[in-house]
Design brief:
By secondary structure, this protein is of the alpha/beta class. The chain has 12 helices and 15 strands. Strands 8-9-5-10-4-11-12-15 form an 8-stranded mixed sheet, with helices on both faces. Strands 1-2-3 form a 3-stranded mixed sheet, covered by helices on one side. Strands 6-7 form a two-stranded antiparallel sheet. The longest helix is centred in the C-terminal third of the chain and has 16 residues.
Amino acid sequence: MTAELTARVRDAVAGVTDPELRRPLGELDMLRDIAVRDGVAEVGIALTIVGCPAADRIERDVRDAAASVAGVDAVDVRVGVMSPDERKALTEKLRGGRAKREMPFGPDSLTRVIAVTSGKGGVGKSTITANLAVALAARGLRVGLIDADVHGFSIPGLLGLVDTDGLPPAPTRLDDLILPPVAYGVKVISIGMFLRRPGEDAAGAVAWRGPMLHRTVQQFLTDVFFGDLDVLLLDMPPGTGDVAISVGQLLPHADVLVVTTPQAAAAEVAVRSGLVARQTGQRPIGVIENMAAMTLPDGTVLDLFGAGGGDEVARALSDDETPVPLLASVPLSAALRSGGDDGHPVVLSQPDDPAAQAIDAAAAALAIRPRGLAGKPLRLNV
């Protein structure tokens, strides 16, 4: 009976998910000695690193899982840390048995990569990207988000990934793997998470030129452990500069989503960002028009930034073989703005807001077009 009870406790604890790696502890080889004596479950676990940020949650979840087993009256959780060899084995397992670093989002990957771009800044591209990522995750997709707007990073704040000082937390490192924080079901990485200096209450500015920017984007794609994703979004910097060129080189198979406002000046330069992406082999798949006309409480319509910009960008990027649709026209919205300031995306905090509904409609259009296996070689280990 004791052996059977111990086995049930082990099974229950093995199913607890590591909140950073998003895999069960049993699969991650984090379980140690487990025994049940006189109704007390003694459970040993090994965390990945000393000072693991998720330690308290893991210990609590392990305790709850063991206590849920019938016949267990009390739980004693003993927490240790993996040895260097165990961590090395774990990182190799997470990389699928590959010891060397390798970018997992190549042409054969089933992850759909979408670069969200704009011609100019100030059109709300990052706000749209953050809400789009959350809306896709809410539909049950596994979503990652790279804040590739290295000079103007804002994704952590938009998703509430900040501490009491308003600064992004540093991600956990597992040897040479970086574990991205998770917000609203979205795995997120941003250069802002690496710029805080001891004793300072503000993140440092980035004053880098092309080679450094290229290495940063490459490292995000290679060293950050996103796991299996359905969709990887990249919040691109505005324009067609170094980062856009680097992403075009590293991810030539990526889809491109163009954000503009209705204003003609914004639409004209937004077209250029889509054309440059196409030159690298990437494929424009849609346009989102932000800051469109809003309906006031008295029923009148305010088109502060004009009208027609989104349609014009979609027409300019379309051709006979590959039409580019206008996926959404997102109206001006105080809720969208305040949600970004507070770190509560409007698609969840106020889903009935017209802006939230428009963004969710765009997410719905993207969610039904996953990447498939057709035309891709299957790499089988036999």
